[in-house]
């Protein structure tokens, strides 16, 4: 028995975590309500809370490795024969431990997010932290009062544990639950930002910018978790499929649907300020569905093949869901006016509307899944009638939704933002639609010949008109799927091809460079397109289920079963055993039509020592791109060697897993930081290299220490020691963080540089709007280049956007322009002191000249509070001053039309809206390089340009 | 358990038979029990004569031989099923006979089919003059399971579920016994209570070992036999049995219905009782005449078990567990036993730290709400220091940017753009500084 009193310490740690979360919650609220100096205390409190959870995990892991069966959870989910890695997976093998694991992952997300937020979103930060702490607090209460993983075995300590469920002793179990939990738990981050935005009233794009990448990462984890679950089901559960519409599967699928809708919907708000309220609602609903899903899984309310045992924690979830729903609704109602849209959808033939339709379909899918999942319960409550809703009903309803969704995935990229004309749409749709129809015709003509018929008759499950209609649709689903999938693939290909050719034409790049630049400049868009193709691949895999062939037979050694052009021959039965189980294998040979050997497979039954009543079915699968051969041994008589086998030919399943890999790739592209972002992070002091070195150092240390410990003490003891060492390190971390936090709370912290006043809401909103306008202008131009929008619409929309952009720039200038000169002087002084060059060296010269009688060029003297205490800048009056102050400061580009100075990388003039990245010839309208002297087409000589800003500081702005 | 039962059987034949012939007082709600009357010194001849007379009078009775067989578990099986090469593949042949082995015609035989997806089908057809009926054209393999049921006078006689093999049919034999609602010959041989502490509740498992000493099937009252559970019992569970007994949860207890065939039958049900503190008292009702009562509890070192009217519990060590056990055997002359009262003492709890934690958390929660409600102002000293620190950070960023520019890591355009961002942020800080000075002034 281990010397450490883990049960007591573990319970104590959970209690301390609750206290720490509550403390952090309190100081966060203080920071959020006018005491920014408390923000540092909140941040360190967050780290301390998360470290406490990590300590809890280390203690439980140690208890598992040392077989501390005093702890009920350890006794129930492990035994002495289990290897150390399954002892680690036992952490999340049962209900109580999985709640601690849930908290641990939430702590991980929270720490990362808090680290990332340093110095950013200072107004939102306290509320984000407070929300996250409230979630962590809820899970601690749940553990303390309903599912304590450190609770002792109330009776006497057993000599050995009951062991992990044999179905969970599988390699997919090592990665599937953590990945799924990461996806589930991760939605807390965007949800917390949404709550922060509601609480502070900063409901413009700021919170969306903050969560953009987090949301994508969380979505990726949840998607991978679902797919790994499907793979686990396919390989381990042995029922022949990958998705059974089980309530627990549905519990994960529902938040995924709403989260996917949210991912699409935020793009519209970022672009055009629409759907603010809808986005808030969607993210709240996503988080709510994760909690609801957990409630379904753990309360035992609905029977499921792989839910946790029935328990009393359901009521806690009911209260929490009630609190969540009420709180979110109250906040949304409170901020209703601020959630009003800035713009409205101009046309139904627009990408915005396609996105909205996509949202509606996804929500409809979620509602359908919810109703079907809870229908047995509703039926029992309302009509006292027990009903079962099986997979056929789900499949019938989901097929039409899936087809519409997939069609929208193809339509969306082809339609332009704002408004698409018939002519442009015809041009954009022609090729993809032609490709889709051709594929459909080919499928209809030759599908049967190659074993993939276009029409598969389906019968109605119930005698209802709607079901007959669905059955009819189901019959032609293979053909419709072919058409739709081809359409989406055609669309995506066309988007890549046209984007590349436009770059090749306008920028003179070669095809490779153009493609890479195209993707790198709009990673989220093109990453999204790749994800769409991945979904198509998966959809093809799902459609393959229509062609399943199944056969069952009792065979004696030497006999064979014929199925789908194959012969599956039963060769012999053999038995093996290891420390934890007996294994009965049946060796079989798969032969093709010519009698050639295709594969050797060995389906088996494993009988675990701890669960002899629960033999597991180990299927044997021969994977293939066209079809999988899935062999299940139902039973075998060891004396007569008579075996009963079930063989299923499952076409196209491999495409699902390939689609999953492509989806991961696409999401990585969408999430990956640009070079600019990496440089910006580095500039902010975050060193990737330093982080990588630290990780590599720790990894190297562990790679030496672990083998030594394993050799010296044996694997299990070594792992126990490692967890003790980790726990020790975590304790040091906790003490440090708490000390820092308390210092911050009592005003003794010197390192809270990020607690300075945040930019005002109005300014942040203006910056957001400016960025959105710039993106819109770029989109507009790109879509015109792609031919998605007519010249007339382009001009009209561009004029409107430019007009608004001018106004926004003017308002932005007003705010800080009077202080720019001083700021530049400060930078120049600092850099000079360090012996570095500076783009603002001239400021120092100005300063020395300033000591002399002031020159006329100075538009602003240094603000003197003593001299002008009542000075309140008037936006309109100071506009010119602001521009003047800005003008000489930058490396600028002068507008060829009105000579206004613009930012060096500006594409458009902020005053007249002309394109400054190129110069238009007045004679032939050809666009030329901005500094060209002659038109490249008609050789018209341009007028001499104004000098650039750095050369003409003394000029007044025109 | 098996050893214990065998010992009981060996030791208790005489008192048991006395039990079977005593007209005891039954607990409330118990089904009526017919008179038996005491008899002395019965010879074999008398016994045979008596049996014959009884059969002539159609009176129930429990012959010694039946009693012995019932207790030893040697009663004939009333249903059997197995593959038979004489039956065509995909068919089930059912034969219904009476207790003498004579075929019983015109009996409705039900074929219940349970499909792999959970769907169920039922099909009924009568037996012919030879007591036979055949269900044909049935799917073979593991996609579905079959079961044969015969209903008679409130009892259901069922075969064990089976799957049809792909190469032969199945033969099922059912013995249809007479039925009675007279519980005279039914005895609860052992009422066993097993207690296990689980976190915040006590898990109680009852195992009821019935023995039907007659050659008739006993049928529970048509409205079911109502059995109470201790107050506050939750999470009632029962172990599904293949025999004809059903335990349906009702308000405050459960209803026992179905039938008991001759011989032994074991029923198991369980429920939870909430633990609140370190002690627990509850009462367990006994629904039938009972021969032996036993209470066992898996116990921690400090836990004690007491049952009113039973000897002090003894501690045993079983597979590393500390087991507290007490039991008593009853005599026919003992007063009726309606219930037993169980007391558990010295239960280990989760400790007070969670309440301390929740108290501290509530204090912080209230503080947080107060902070949020009252609002506050930035501490000017902190704000100034913070601005200074942020200014230093921005200047450090500028220096880093310049270094990157000098080492050609970034180009002039990037440098200018980001230097502008830094200066704009600095300008914003300067504006804040000025505003703060104005406020101070």
Give a verbal description of the structure.
The complex is a heterodimer of chains A (958) and B (441). With 958 residues, chain A is an alpha+beta fold. Chain A is 59% helix and 8% strand. In chain A, helix 1 (6-32) runs antiparallel to helix 6, helix 6 packs across helix 8 (188-200) and helix 13 runs antiparallel to helix 14. The longest helix of chain A is centred in the last third of the chain and has 43 residues, at 791-833. The radius of gyration of chain A is 32 Å and the shape is globular. The N and C termini of chain A lie far apart (85 Å). Chain B has helices at residues 2-21, 44-57, 64-72, 353-374, 380-406, 412-440; strands at 79-84, 92-98, 108-115, 120-126, 132-135, 144-152, 155-158, 169-176, 179-180, 186-198, 201-212, 217-219, 225-228, 234-238, 245-250, 253-260, 263-274, 280-285, 290-299, 304-307, 314-318, 321-329, 339-345. Residues 10-43 and 54-60 of chain B have low confidence and may be disordered.
Question: What is this entry, summarized?
Answer:
The complex is a heterodimer of chains A (about 950) and B (about 450). Chain A has about 950 residues and is an alpha+beta fold.
- Largest beta-sheet characterization of chain A: 6 strands, antiparallel
Question: Which term fits the overall shape of chain A?
Answer: globular
Q: What value does the average pLDDT of chain A take?
A: 81
Report the C-alpha radius of gyration of chain A, rounded: 32 Å
Q: Uncertain runs of chain A with pLDDT below 50, 5 residues or more?
A: 753-757, 853-890, 945-958
Distance between the termini of chain A: 85 Å
Relative helix content of chain B: 25-40%
Number of strands of chain A: 14
Q: Work out the number of β strands of chain B.
A: 23
Biggest sheet overview of chain B:
7 strands, mixed
Report the sheet-strand fraction of chain B: 35-45%
**SS class of chain A:** alpha+beta
Low-confidence stretches of chain B: 10-43, 54-60
Order of helices and strands of chain B: HHHEEEEEEEEEEEEEEEEEEEEEEEHHH
Helix count of chain A equals 27
Principal-axes shape call of chain B: elongated
Overall mean pLDDT score of chain B? Answer: 79
Strand order of the largest sheet of chain B: 14-17-11-10-19-22-21
Structural class of chain B: alpha+beta
| Radius of gyration over C-alpha positions of chain B, nearest whole angstrom | 38 Å
Helix fraction of chain A by DSSP (H/I, runs of at least 4): 55-70%
């Amino acid at each position: 028995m281990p010397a450490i009193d883990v049960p007591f310490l573990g319970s104590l740690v959970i209690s301390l975590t609750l206290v720490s979360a509550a403390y952090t919650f309190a100081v966060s609220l203080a920071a959020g309500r006018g005491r920014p100096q408390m923000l540092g205390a909140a941040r360190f409190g967050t780290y301390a809370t998360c470290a406490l959870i990590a300590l809890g995990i280390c203690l439980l892991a140690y208890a598992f490795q040392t077989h501390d069966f005093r702890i009920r959870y350890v006794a129930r989910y492990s035994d002495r024969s289990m290897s150390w890695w399954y002892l680690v997976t036992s952490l999340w093998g049962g209900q109580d431990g999985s709640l601690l694991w849930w908290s641990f992952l939430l702590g991980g997300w929270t720490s990362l997010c808090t680290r990332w937020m340093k110095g950013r979103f200072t107004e939102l930060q306290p509320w984000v932290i407070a929300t996250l702490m409230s979630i962590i607090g809820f899970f601690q209460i749940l553990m303390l009062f309903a599912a304590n993983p450190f609770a002792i075995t109330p009776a006497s300590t057993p000599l050995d544990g009951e062991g992990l469920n044999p179905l969970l002793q599988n390699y997919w179990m090592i990665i599937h639950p953590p990945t799924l939990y990461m996806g589930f738990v991760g939605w807390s981050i965007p949800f917390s930002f949404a709550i922060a935005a509601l609480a502070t009233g900063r409901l413009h794009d700021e919170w969306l910018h903050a969560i953009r990448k987090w949301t994508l990462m969380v979505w990726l984890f949840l998607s991978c978790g679902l797919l790994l679950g499907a793979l686990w089901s396919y390989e381990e559960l042995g029922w022949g499929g990958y998705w059974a519409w089980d309530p627990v599967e549905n519990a994960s699928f529902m938040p995924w649907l709403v989260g996917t809708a949210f991912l699409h919907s935020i793009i519209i708000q970022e672009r055009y300020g629409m759907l603010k309220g809808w986005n808030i609602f969607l993210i709240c609903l996503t988080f709510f569905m994760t909690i609801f899903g957990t409630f379904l899984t753990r309360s035992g309310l609905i029977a499921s093949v792989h839910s946790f045992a029935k328990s009393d924690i359901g009521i806690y979830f009911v209260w929490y869901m009630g609190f969540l729903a009420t709180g979110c609704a109250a906040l949304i109602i409170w901020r209703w006016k601020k959630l009003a849209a800035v713009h409205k959808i101009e046309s139904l033939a627009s990408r915005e509307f396609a996105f909205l339709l996509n949202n509606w379909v996804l929500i409809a899918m979620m509602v359908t899944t919810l109703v079907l999942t809870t229908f047995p319960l509703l039926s029992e409550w309302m009509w006292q009638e027990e009903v079962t809703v099986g997979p056929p009903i789900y499949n019938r309803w989901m097929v039409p939704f899936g087809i519409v969704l997939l069609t929208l995935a193809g339509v969306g990229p082809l339609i332009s933002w704002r408004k698409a004309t018939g002519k442009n749409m015809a041009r954009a749709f022609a090729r993809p639609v032609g490709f889709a129809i051709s594929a459909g015709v080919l499928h209809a003509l030759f599908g049967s010949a190659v074993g993939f018929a276009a029409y598969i008759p389906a019968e109605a499950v119930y005698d209802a008109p709607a079901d007959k209609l669905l059955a009819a649709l189901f019959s032609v689903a293979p053909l419709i799927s072919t058409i739709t999938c081809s359409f989406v693939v055609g669309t995506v290909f066309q988007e890549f091809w046209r984007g590349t050719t436009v770059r090749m034409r306008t920028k003179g790049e070669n095809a490779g460079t153009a493609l890479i630049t195209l993707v790198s400049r709009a990673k989220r868009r093109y990453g999204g397109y790749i994800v769409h193709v991945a979904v198509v691949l998966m959809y093809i895999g799902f459609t393959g289920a229509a062609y399943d062939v199944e056969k069952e037979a009792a065979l004696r050694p030497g006999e064979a079963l014929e199925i789908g052009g194959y012969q599956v021959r039963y060769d012999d039965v053999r038995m093996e055993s290891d420390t934890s189980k007996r294994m009965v294998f049946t060796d079989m040979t798969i032969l093709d039509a010519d009698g050639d050997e295709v594969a050797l497979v060995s389906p088996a039954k494993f009988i675990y020592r701890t669960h002899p009543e629960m033999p597991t079915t180990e299927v044997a699968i021969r994977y293939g791109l066209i079809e999988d051969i899935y062999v299940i041994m139902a039973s075998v008589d060891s004396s007569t060697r008579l075996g009963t086998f079930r063989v299923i030919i499952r076409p196209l399943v491999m495409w699902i897993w390939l689609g999953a890999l492509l989806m991961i790739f696409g999401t990585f592209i969408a999430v990956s930081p640009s070079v600019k972002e990496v440089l910006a992070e580095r500039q902010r002091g975050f060193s990737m290299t330093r982080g990588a070195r630290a990780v590599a150092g720790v990894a190297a240390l562990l790679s030496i220490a672990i083998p030594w410990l394993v050799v010296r003490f044996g694997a299990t003891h070594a792992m126990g020691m490692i967890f003790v060492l980790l726990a020790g390190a975590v304790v040091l971390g906790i003490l440090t963080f708490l000390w820092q936090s308390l210092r911050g709370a009592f005003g003794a912290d010197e390192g809270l540089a990020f607690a300075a006043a945040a930019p005002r809401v109005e300014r942040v909103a203006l910056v957001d709007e400016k960025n959105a306008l710039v993106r819109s202008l770029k989109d507009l131009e790109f879509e015109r280049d792609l031919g998605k929008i007519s010249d007339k619409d382009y001009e009209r929309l561009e004029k409107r956007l430019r007009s608004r952009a001018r106004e926004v720039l003017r308002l932005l200038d007003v705010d800080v322009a009077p202080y720019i000169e001083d700021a530049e002087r400060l930078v120049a002084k600092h850099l000079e002191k360090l012996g570095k060059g500076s783009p603002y060296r001239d400021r120092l010269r100005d300063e020395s000249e300033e000591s002399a009688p002031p020159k006329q060029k100075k538009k602003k003297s240094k603000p003197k509070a003593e001299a002008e205490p009542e000075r309140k800048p008037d936006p309109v009056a100071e506009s010119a001053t602001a521009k003047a102050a800005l003008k000489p400061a930058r490396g600028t580009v002068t507008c060829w039309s009105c000579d206004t100075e613009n930012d060096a990388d500006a594409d458009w003039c902020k005053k007249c809206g002309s394109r400054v990245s190129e110069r238009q010839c007045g004679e032939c309208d050809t666009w030329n390089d901005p500094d060209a002297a002659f038109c490249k087409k008609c050789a018209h000589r341009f007028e001499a340009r104004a000098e650039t800003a750095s050369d003409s500081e003394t000029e007044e702005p025109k | 358990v098996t050893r214990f039962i065998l010992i009981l059987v060996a030791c208790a034949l005489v008192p048991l038979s006395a039990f079977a012939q005593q007209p005891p007082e039954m607990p409330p709600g118990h089904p009526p029990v017919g008179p038996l009357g005491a008899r002395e010194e019965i010879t074999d001849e008398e016994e045979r004569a008596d049996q014959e007379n009884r059969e002539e009078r159609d009176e129930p009775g429990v012959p010694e031989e039946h009693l012995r067989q019932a207790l030893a578990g040697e009663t004939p099986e009333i249903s059997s099923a197995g593959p038979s090469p004489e039956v065509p593949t995909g068919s089930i042949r059912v034969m219904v006979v009476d207790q003498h082995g004579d075929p019983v015609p015109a009996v409705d035989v039900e074929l219940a089919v349970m499909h792999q997806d959970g769907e169920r089908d039922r099909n009924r057809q009568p037996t012919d003059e030879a007591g036979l009926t055949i269900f044909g054209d049935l799917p073979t393999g593991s996609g579905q399971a079959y079961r044969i049921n015969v209903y008679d006078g409130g009892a259901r006689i069922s075969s064990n579920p089976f799957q049809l093999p792909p190469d032969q049919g199945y033969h099922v034999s059912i013995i249809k016994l007479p039925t009675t609602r007279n519980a005279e010959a039914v005895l609860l041989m052992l009422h066993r209570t097993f207690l296990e502490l689980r976190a915040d509740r006590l898990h109680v498992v009852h195992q009821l070992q019935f023995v039907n000493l007659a050659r008739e099937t006993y049928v529970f009252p048509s409205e079911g036999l109502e059995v109470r559970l201790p107050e506050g019992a939750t999470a009632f569970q029962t172990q599904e049995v293949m025999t004809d007994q059903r335990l349906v949860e009702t308000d405050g207890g459960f209803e026992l219905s179905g039938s008991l065939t001759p011989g032994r039958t074991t029923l198991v049900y369980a429920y939870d009782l909430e633990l609140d503190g370190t002690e627990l008292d509850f009462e367990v009702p006994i629904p039938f005449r009972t021969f032996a009562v036993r209470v066992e509890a898996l116990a921690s070192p400090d836990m004690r078990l007491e049952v009113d009217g039973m000897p002090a519990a003894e501690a045993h060590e079983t597979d590393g567990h500390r087991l507290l056990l007490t039991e008593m055997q009853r005599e026919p002359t003992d007063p009726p036993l309606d219930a037993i009262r169980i007391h558990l003492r010295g239960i280990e709890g989760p400790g007070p730290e969670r309440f301390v934690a929740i108290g501290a958390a509530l204090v912080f929660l209230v503080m947080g709400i107060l902070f949020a409600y009252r609002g506050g102002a930035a501490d000017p000293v902190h704000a100034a220091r913070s601005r200074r620190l942020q200014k230093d950070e921005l200047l450090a960023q500028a220096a880093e940017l310049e270094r990157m520019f000098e080492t050609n890591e970034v180009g002039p355009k990037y440098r200018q753009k980001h230097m502008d961002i830094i200066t704009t942020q600095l300008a914003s800080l300067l504006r804040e500084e000025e505003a703060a000075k104005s406020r101070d002034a």
